[in-house]
Amino acid sequence: MDSASCYLLKIHLLGNHKKARKDVKCFTFEMVVDSDLSNYKDFIESVTYKYPAGYLEVAHVQYYDIVLKNFSEVKSDHDLMSMFDIHCKEKVVQMFVSYCDPSKTFEPITEWEFVGEGQPENTVQNEDDYPEDERVGVHEETMYLTLPLDVLRKGRKLYQWRLILQRLRMTQKMSLRITQRMTQRKRHMKK
């Protein structure tokens, strides 16, 4: 997997507005995608497989365009590739997947409050970003455990590597599915 073609998708999953709880705005999860190996159909299938829609509901995909400052809709492979082209510097895309009833008109997202989310400039923290007297522990009894800084840094690095490996495994599974589908299509065309 080429790091130049990998993107972090921060996906905000919005349920049907009439059926969704009023106290929950959305469910957010992250997904690493290789832009060279992804297409619209497989992307939608991977999201709806993990987070299925309700009965007869249809998924609609939008993303926040950082250039035009609006919410563009993704309906095809071409739209997906143009989304990757727009976000080629940041490598982070804020996406929105909305489930809605097909008999009703889709109301696209026109505004969103990115509270504490924003487009991050750098997703990897430097070692100098951590305070020297960092404390770990439980606040209930005001009991803290002070750990040496090098132990904390190693723990954070291990956690970051675990996340990266987890994302790579997901991307490898997705690319394997894509290659399997391509070979099935080739076999089907030969028949």
Write a short abstract of this structure.
The protein is built from three helices and seven strands, in the order ββαββαβββα. It has 191 residues and is α+β, with helices and mostly antiparallel strands.
* Total strand segments: 7
Q: Averaged pLDDT, please?
A: 75
CATH architecture of the largest domain: Roll
Query: Can you count the helices?
Result: 3
Low-pLDDT sequence parts:
117-149
Structurally, the number of domains stands at 2
CATH fold call of the largest domain: Ubiquitin-like (UB roll)
Structural class: alpha+beta
Q: What is the CATH homology-level superfamily of the largest domain?
A: Phosphatidylinositol 3-kinase Catalytic Subunit, Chain A, domain 1
Residue fraction in strands:
15-25%
Shape: globular
Radius of gyration: 20 Å
Strand order of the largest sheet: 2-1-5-3-4
CATH class of the largest domain: Alpha Beta
End-to-end distance, in Å? Answer: 32 Å
Q: What's the helix-strand series? A: EEHEEHEEEH
Largest sheet: 5 strands, mixed
The helical percent reads: 25-40%
Describe the structure.
This protein has 191 residues and is of the alpha+beta class. The protein folds into two domains: 3-117, Roll (Ubiquitin-like (UB roll)); 125-191. Helix content is 33%, strand content 25%. Strands 2-1-5-3-4 form a five-stranded mixed β-sheet. It is globular, with a radius of gyration of 20 Å. The two termini are 32 Å apart. The model is unreliable at 117-149 (pLDDT under 50).
